[in-house]
Each structure stands twice: as structure tokens, then as C-alpha cells.
UniProtKB/TrEMBL annotation:
Family label: Belongs to the polycystin family.
Topological category with respect to the lipid bilayer: Multi-pass membrane protein
InterPro entries: PDZ_sf, PKD1_2_channel, PKD_2, Polycystin, Polycystin_dom
Span of domain Polycystin: 811-884
One Pfam entry name: PKD_channel
Name by which UniProt lists this protein: Polycystin-2 (Curly up) (Cup) (Polycystic kidney disease 2 protein homolog) (Transient receptor potential cation channel subfamily P member 2)
Native source organism of the sequence: Durusdinium trenchii
Localization per Swiss-Prot or TrEMBL: Membrane
Amino acid sequence: MGQASLATFYVVFAIFTIYLNLESIGTWDANAIYRTISKAISENPFSLENLNTTRFLDEVQDPEQVYDWMRDAFRPVLFGEQEDMSVHASWQNMSSWTHNKTPPTIGSFNRILLVRFTFKRWAVQPTIGQFQPSTPYRLAGGVSRLDAFSQNAAEDKTTLCVPGTGSSEEAQEAGCFQWETGSSFDRVGGFTSFFDPMWGSDAYDALLQRMKQAGLFDMRMGTCTVDMIVYNANVEMFLQYVQSFAFDFSGHGESSNDARSFNLNVFNTSVTKYLIFYIIRVTCVVMLIIFLLLEFRRIWDLGFFAHFRQQGAITDMVSITVSLGVFLSYWIIEQMQPFRSFNFADLQNSSTMAATYVSLCDVARSLQIQGLFIAANLLVVSLRTVSLVSGLHSNLGLILKVIHVSGPNFIAFLALFGMLQIGFVLTSFFAFGPGYSEMSDIGLCIYKSFSMLSGDMIFDKITRVDPILGPIYFFSFYILFFLVLINIFVTLLMSGYDIVDYELHKKGQNEVEKNPIILIFEELKADVVGNILKYGSTLMKYIRVCVDPIVVSIKACCCISAPPALTFFSSRALTRGTAQAERQSTQVQQQGAQDPDQLRQNLIAFTTMVAFMAVWICLMTLQGRGSDSYFTGQTTLSESALEVMFYKNDTIRNFDQIHSFSDVKTWADTAIVGLYSNPTCAESTTSGSMWNASPSCANSNNSQQLLNRIGGWNVGFLNTTFVRLTIQPACFVATESKWASGLPTLRKTPDVSCWNSVCTDVFSSESCRSADGDVVNAQSLSNAINSSLLPETFSFGYDAPGTGLGPFKMLGGLSLSLGVTKEQCEDVLALLDASRWFTENSASIVFDWLTYNGNMDLFTHSIVAFSLLETGVMRRSAESRTFPMNVDTGGGYFDLQTLVLVLFGLYVALLLYHIIDMIRHVAGELAASRRRQQPLRKFFVDYWSEGWNVIETLSLLISLATVISFLVFVLNGFRTDYRFSTDDTKKYVVPNEQVKLYNMQQVVDPSRNQEDDWYFFRQFEIIQGTYGVFLEFAALNSLFIALKTVKIVNRFKIVSKFSNTLANGKTRNLYFIIVINLQMAGFALAMTVVFGTMVQEFSSPLSTMGALLYWVCGSSDLRPLMRVSPTLAVLFFVAFMVVFRFISTNMFLATQLNTFAALVGESDIKAARLEANAKMGMKQVRYHDKKELQAELELERQSEDQVTVKRVLRPGLALQANVQPGDVVSKVNKQKVEWQNTLDEEEYEHIERALVPEPDGTITLMFQDPPRKTFLAKLMQSCSCMTKRRKVKPGRKSQHEAYAKPPAMRPTVHNFWRFHGAVAEVEKDSQIYRPPRGGGGEWQ
């Protein structure tokens, strides 16, 4: 099997492995459940006894406060969402739930199965000495702290009992706590007690009281671990949440948490999803066996030690071994008891409760350990993928080759770097650790030292700790590491890069590398198809041998002629196609002055492009009005709704602390109701319109309308609705019988942000019920609330997606007007709360309102939305969309609409000019292609292979799209006609066709005014969407206009060297990006598995990639990772920074420097050659085509083998190169021409017409000054003029014989090109006399 085939199959294996492991672990769902639980636990306050103050989880300082936290903060977590079954009476129709209480949940869907409390206590010994009276005992064991995750020798194991407990066995069991290991947390021992939340809050209070009376919360508490297992039926996941408190010898307390997830259904092949997992697992094992057999074959062929001395062999074997170990661990875990037989009833049975809970915890712990092996496996798999892919092309393997070449230097440097780093780490730890938390640990000091190399400034923080040593440490660190050592490292890297690049260039002169994609297809064709044909033909041969006697026998019996030979495959040779060499397009500029025509064209193009960009900038600055839109959005949304604080459970909260629909209701009672706090009455009088605070303002009055103001100037202008509320109901079904006792209902609503999606289509495919058990369909939803309690102008009902005007964006659901007064808003919110829509019965809730600012002449659509996901996570969204409605005229201080339209017209005119110019350019390229007799398909392939052509085409297309979207916005009929007024005769009237289209009520119907408002909401959504599309195209257009400007500027020589540097290095940079992304993907996958459950930024591979890119850019926060595992966090961070920050990113720098040096070297060579030619009277002119040559020069033949310039017809390239009449044409297209063998007799008079251009149509002429003649030579020439010149009709030679191509010259640009390379070599080369093969000679 070839390298490309092996790499391809391994990439397939890597994809299968990644998918299987990530989906089996379910990191994203586990992290979502963890976030739901941790926020619920951490944001509940607790009060301190005898102190009028409250604290939170991270502020627990002593064991007494642990008790206070359990009493006040943890108790609402256990019972806060539990309700009486009378509210859910309809459950009996869909579930066998028999309890009188609903399951205790967190985030609506995460059912708490069981809670375990584990305490560890310090062992003590009597105090000796004068302090014995005040401190009768001290801690024993010689350790500074107890560890909740391991056994400790300094633990007290004496049984604790509540005072007054009897001696009977029953009394001892009820009132005493014994130290045990079997049922304790992680089986590491402790005083353990279990609690089922279904026992009720009274039982919980009694348990806490017994633990306190027994002394578990006294000052001898070493650790207290509270862990519980929750179950989410929506994602079929269990999660063990661990909250631990530890108190050291000084009395200092620390809290930490952990989370371990598992899925007991993952090996159930009766489910399609998990059957696919099983098939993929078997496929991966088969592929691993094949890879292992290939490795054994190589070991057999090369020998054991010779094989492992090859590059990548050890990585291959480690990867295969670790992968086999991971798949073996799946089989071992599958044999654990909970995967084979688990029943929720065992957790509720007091006799089996502990054993069942511990077995589930063993599964969680085993899978957590397996996650470390999976992370290592994914990292090694990605490393082997990089190794195999790097072998497909030299540029793909460049990074690994540079590391290999520079390896000894890197090792020596890193040894020096490490020793110095250790010194600075210890210095920072001892000097700043006591006063700076982020240097209070050795691991944190290592992290901080590397983050300082990435630009993390900590000068102020360490200076506050030590004003003298702080500045010294800071400046010495940056001088030594950032300015000296890092640059030494870059020098070592570039030295290795130059060596590898030189070797690759020598290799490239002898062989042409194939494109990796072409190579993969060729090897797959040879290895796969070839083997199929090979073994297939062998199989057919045996079939023929077996079938031929039967055929002959049938013929003999039935007198049938013999059939033709059984041939199923035509024998054809499998030949590998040769791939074209990778084409590197490098623009070669003239070294002399540019062609005046070309220069003039460039200046015209540059001027028009600058005008194009200037017009566009002015147009979008005036039309976009960014600052106006921003401040309007800040006023109408952020300041009025998002920054509003609200109270819940006697705690002040903000918008980011909304985690349930119950919180949404509390927030709406403050923020949404607060939007109605500044009403005013707009009244039309004979003297004009005016605002007043009339309490009797009525919208039914033809001259009055009640307006709600935000920030004084932003008014709500609709008649019946200021704020609209849209609800998409959730769909629930009964849980499968096996899991029904865990959670009786299962949500079927799509797990997306339903506020901006259609989530009610599920009603047509499922027999949906609400979370309360009520039937959910269109009919029941129309009666979901008591409409009789609403004003007669209000209408309520359910609208299917795309049918009713009421819901937000017509996505379907329930739509309600919150009215135009504060009282109406409060009443509607209370009615919805009483109808239980601020519960899990809703999938999403959207509040949106429209306002107009007359000062800025801008409309604003403000949106606040909430979506409840199936993991219990509440996803909050807020948007403010500001847009103008007036184009030609308007109100407010903005009166430049006419200028905007003029600029738009200029922009369209310039755009048409650029389109015509591009069409003319394409036509010219097409004509040149036809002259070269190229097919049309090749022309388009060649044209689109040029990056600048792609950019220019995309730029024009996006510009056209921008113009079209703006015209669609301008020509919108509603935008043109809409007016609002207090006078009904002047208000905008909904067109009759729209009334019929949306089936609106008659004008006399009381609810018609609300339907009109719903129509206005919809039209404003359409206009805002159109304007938003215009702004998106405008943003893209701005980028591509800038790129197109760069293309025009690139035509000037002073800029072209930089763009050519990017162009020449683009292929190698592209390969770097591929390899670096593969490497980064390995880190991302491993870190997702290790940290994803507890760190949101690392909960999915994509988000982890984003976080790692922040690390590369110098922005990192390691504290969340340190809470999971300090050791792994520091190891990953240091390894990542060394590989990517120091090596991979600097490879781009090395590439650009090397490419720029090569370009400058070639430029110096060319300049030196021109200078040498000038000394010898040599001049070179390059014409774009033969027509340009004929228009500028007339040539004549002076002798049989000499052609000279007869005259210069016009100023142009020839005069720029100082070509004069009489100059000798020495070379054509860089080749010496034997004129007597090239020209026909009829071509003597017009030699310039007979010259053969290059394949691209260009002609390059080399001229030489005429030889200086003595007086005798001139006299002989004058005498010869008196005789008739003899014409000779020479024989013609082939083009290959007439032109002799000189060998290619490569500039010496490695490291010292300016001193030892280009100029000196060209000077020597120009003076070398080289005799041609046919005799004679010439100076070059």
C-alpha cells in the first residue's frame, strides 16, 4: 500500500475514531447539564447566623458556614422545582408515576436521583505546653490538609452519635454516623449518609440537624463532599456532580467541584443511533488490525531495529497500540453491572440504595479515567495523521523536517531556556506568591511565565506586591526571554528552514512533485481498483476452470454450441497518470521605466479605484450612520432592559443570571413593565401636534394616541401594542418504560434556539402534551389562557408557522399584546403566569417592541428572547436592529438624503465602469487564448486559477448584490407609503390585497386594530431584514473593494515586490495552514475530552479551536482548566505554546523572509545583468505582442548574419531602453538567432514581421550597440555601398535548431545573498566566454 493510500485510510479511521469517542462521551450535553447545576448551586445565597449578611458558595470560610450553605442555598436546589402532583393531574394519562410529588429537578429536565454526604475529620492529639488551656488539642498526622479524593492517615475514624442516642441497633443506625469506605465518595473513606429528595424537605432538615448535633460541622471538619447523580431523559445522560469543601491546618477553606458523565444506553444496539456506534467501533477495530498487520510486515521486511529507526515508525506503533487499548476499554466498561441491569427502583429501596449508587459512581469514575486514555489516543491519532499527510508533499512535511533538522539545536536551547525559566518561576513564587493569587502556586507561576511571553502584562500586579523586586523581575524577564532567547529560537528555526528549503529546491530541480490530491487518487486507483481487478481476474479464472466442464457437458447433451469464454473484465494496463507540476505564478516587472501607455493605464485604474472606494466610504458612512444606530440601540435595549436589575429570593440579579422561565417572569415584571413607565399623550390640535401628560388620553379618540417613551425621545407608535410577546409551546411525550421511573416525560421539541426557528412542526408528527400532561395541539392552544380576561381589542390564539401575522417572524406559536399601558402589561404577564407559560411548558419566549426616534429619523426593532434547551440551559438572546425608513426626505437633524442618493448614483456609474473594464479585460484574455488555439474550458480554468481574477469577479458580484439589495429596500411599497398619525384619516391603511392575504378581520371588528399592529410588526421585520441583507453585503463589499484596490496598487513596481512575496509563498503557506490545523485539531480534541465537561469554552471541538486560537494570539485564562486538573492544564498549555506560538507561527515568518529574499535576490541579479549588459552595450525590450513591435520599430538586414534597427517609429519601450538606429539585434526571446537560416527571401524587407513570438504572445529583443569602426572600416563600407548587395536565399532550420536556450540561473539567496551571492555571481557569469556546440563563441 502506497503512502497516499495509507494516509487516506488512516484519515478515514481518524474521523471514525473522533466521531465515535466524542459522541459516546457527549461532552457538549454533559457540559450543558453541568452548567445548569453549577449555576443553580453557586448563585443561591445563604445567610449567616447571628449576622445580618448573606454569602455565596465561593465565600464559604469555615465548617459552620458549610452547614449554613446546606440549609439555605442547597435546600432550594433540591426542592425548588418540585411541585405537588395536583398541578400535573394529567400525567396519569401518559405515565405510571405514582408519587404525590413531581421529581426533584434542576433546570426543569435534570432529575436528582440521590444525594450523598461524605465527611472527613481531623485526628487530634493533646496540646503540650503553656497553650494547653486555650487550645486543648491540635491536629495530628503531620499533614497540612486532608484530601477528599484519597485516604489520609490523619483522619479520625471514631463513630459520631447524636447526644442521647440509645444503645439499640436501630437507635445506633438512626442517630450515629460511622466511618466507612464501601459507600463513601470514591471509596476513600469517611462518614457517609444518603438522602433521596423524594423523602421531602422535612426529612432533609432533620438529616442536617442530626449531622450538626453529631459534630460533623465542628472545627475538626477536614473535608465535606456533597455529590449527587442527576438524570436527563432528553439526552439519555447521567451526571455525577461533586461539590467539595476542604479546610487546612490554618483554617483556610477552599471549595471545588467536579463532574463525571455517562450514558447507560450507549451499548444498546436496539437503538439505531447506538447500533451505528457499534458498527463504527467494529470497523475501527478491523482497520486497526489491518494497520497492525502492515506494521508487522514492515518489521519482517526491514528488521525490528531498522524499522523503528525510520521516521514516524514509533508514532505509528504507539498510535495503533493506544487505539487498541481504548477500544478494549470499551468492552471492559460494557461488562460493568449498571450497563447490563439497572433499575431506578433500586435507588429508592433503602436496602439497595447505597450499592446501586456506588456502582453508578464507579461507572462515572471509570469513564472519567477512560477519558484520559481517549484524550491521549486522539492526540496520538492526530499526530500520526499529520505524519502520514506530511509524506504526501514536501511542503506538507516542511514543518516536521525543520523540527527534525533543528532538533539538536532545539534540545540544547530548550535545556538552557528551561533552566532559566525554572529560576524565574521560583523567584516569582517566593517573591510574589504570598500577595498575588495567580503566582501562589508553582503551576500558576509556570503558566504566568509563558503567558508573559504571549504579551500578558502583570507589571502593576507584581509591583503592588513588591515595589522594588517587581520592576527588576519584570524588565529582566522581558529583556532576557522576549528580546534575546525568543529571537535566538527564531534564528535556530530559520537556519533549519534554510537548510530544508535548499534541499527541497535541489530535489525540485531533478523531479516534479505531484499534487497531493492527484497522488491520492492515483494510488487509490492502483491499490484498491488494481487489487480488485487482480484478485477478481484470479477468481474468474478459477470460476472458468470449474464452469467449463459443465458447459461442455451441457453442449454435449443438448447440442448447443460452446459459449464464448467467460470474461467479465477487459484486460487493460493500469497506468498512473502524470500530474502537472504545480504552477507558481510570479509577476515579472520591467527593470527600466514602465511603458508610458501602461503607466497611464495604471494611473487611470488607480484613480478610478480610489474614487470608487472614496464614494463607497462616504455613501456607507452617511447611509449606515453607525454611531447613531449604536446609541439608539443602547438606549432602547441595553439601558432600558438588559441592564435592569431585579430581585428574586431576596437576591439582586442581572440579565445574565436568568436561568429559567421563572426568572424570565421576575425579570419581565421589572424590565418589561418598566418600559411603560414614561407614557405621554400625542394630541393633534388646530395649532398642531403636541405632547402632554393627559391622564384621559385614549387611542380610540381620533385626535389622541398614548405613546410610551424610552429615553425621552424613542416612542412606541402603534395603536394597541407597545410590546409583543410570542411563545412557542414545548412538546412532551411519555418516556420509554425502562427509564420512565427516572423521569416520566421526554421533550420532543428540537434542541435549538426556538425563538429564531420553527419548533412547532413536531405537533404534526407526535402526540404532544405539555409538561403538565395536557394535550397540546392547535385547538387546545387556542384556549390555553382565559381570553375573557383580556380587553376586547385583544385577540389571542395559536398560529401555525407562516400562516398568522401575530408570532415573531411568523414562526408560529402564541402571540399576545402586552398593551399600551403599564396596567395592561402587568395583567397579561400575570395571566400567562397563572396559565403556567413561564415554565418548561414553553420552548421559547420572545419580547419585541418598535420605537421611532424623530431626532435621528430612525426606527428600532428591539428583541429580547429566551430559549430553553433540552439540557436545562437557558439561552438568552438580545438584538437591536436600527434602520431608516426615509430615503429622499426625513425628519430630525439628518438632512443629507439627497447627497446619499447622489453618491449612490456615482457608485453605480463607477461600478458599471469597472464591469465594462473587466469585460474588456476578459475579452482580451479570451482573444489571446484563441490565438494560442486553447479550448474555452482551459481558458476559464486558467483565468480562474489566478487569485486576483477571482477577487475581482467576487468584488463585482458582491457590489451588484449590494446595489440590488439597496434598490429592493428603496422600492419597498410599505416603506414608501407608511405614515403614522393621531388622525385616522391620515394613518396608513392596510391594502385590501394584504387584508385578504392574511385573512384579517373587518374594520368594524374590535380586534382589527391589533391585527393592523401585527401587520406593521411583520412589515417592519421584512424591511429590517432587507436592510440587514444590504448591510451584510456592504460589509463584504468593503473588504473586497479594499482587496481590489490592492490589486491595482500592485501594478506599480514599488509595491509589487511585497505582493509577489505573498503570491510566491501562498502555496507553502496553504500547506502550513493544513498541517497546523491538523496539529491544533489534535490538541482541541484531547482538551475537549479532558476539560469539556466542566469548561464551557472547551465543551466542543469547534469552541476549543477558537479558545486555542486565542492562546496563539496571546489571550489565555488557565484558571478554569486549573480547577479541573492543574497538572494537565499546565502541561497542555506549555506544550501548545512551544509547538504553535514558538514553532508553527514562526514558520510563516521564515517562509515570507525566505521568499522575500529570493525575490530581492532575483531583482539584484537582474539589475546586475542589466548593468553588465549596459557596459557591453546590451539593451533588452519586451513587447506584449508582435503588433506592438511593428508599430514601434523597423528592422533591416545589414549582412547575412546581422540585423539592425533601421529606425524607431514612435516613443515607447525602445526609446526607454535607449535603443538607437543602428543597434544590432543580438537575441530574440533570449536565444541567439542564425538569421541566414531563419529568414526567407521575402522576409528580408520586413524582418519584424517574421519574428516568432513566445507561446504567451510576447517578444523579447536583445540589442547591442553597433561596433565602433575605424576610418579604414568606414572607407571600405562606403566603397561597398557602390556595389549591389547580393541576396542569399538561405535554407530554413527548425525552431529547435535555430534557437539555443541557455541554462537557467538561480539566485543564491540563502542567508548571505547580499554579500556573497547575487551580484558577484552575475558579474562573473556575465564575463564568461562560452563557446557554443557548433563552434565559434560569444560573450555573455
